[in-house]
Amino acid sequence: MAKRMVSVLAAAVALVGVFGGSAVAETGEGSGEAQAAKSCANVKLSGSLPAPPAGMAVQQQVTIGDDCKPELGPVRYVPAGSAAKAGKGARTGAAAAGAHQLRTWSEMYDCCNIRMTGLYTTATWDTASGHVVNAATQARQEWNREPWNAGWSLLSSSKKDDCTADCAVVNSEAHASFTYAGIFDPFGTVYANTHHSYVRIDAGSGAVCRFDVELKQTFIGWNWRRGCE
Fold first, then answer.
1. CA within 20 to 30 Å of 93's CA: 99, 154, 183, 185, which one?
2. Which phi and psi (to 5°) does residue 75 adopt?
């Protein structure tokens, strides 16, 4: 697991990466080039994805590369369900006839493919006569714990829909902030991940997924994985 913190996670489905602050020198073993900047402070990544066609999922990964530059993976369309992993939990089942459902995920992984934090939403809605008849959004958060009652913890979470009945457009959002105190930082002052997920539902044109993630401290090799189906 020590290898995990020599690299950083930040992946995304569409793309704008804004990095506040600069890379900082690693304080572990080694000197000179061996201690080159491998960690990145105050990282923010943003992007959006169109809702995929029925029966499909859309996903993308963004990895923190050299010099804290984001390396954007391709936007991939895969059969719905094939993108689901244990981290996203059990599927919610098919929507009723005439109803619509859209699931999103925003996950941060370290360089050892361990998911640190994740935010998951499920939006459901019905449409008729060019309006959203009713809409609701559910949100769930998951995070990695260490065996000695340490690791990541959920600090706060929230969700809301700006309209739930007889709407031309519905804007739903969910937020989750996580802190870390464990083997890599026993005092809990170095690491913090905050996820933001947004779904815009338009009765006429469909839905769009948008994501933001803010990382207090990250490493080369961490990646952000997100998508919707």
1. 154
2. -80, 120
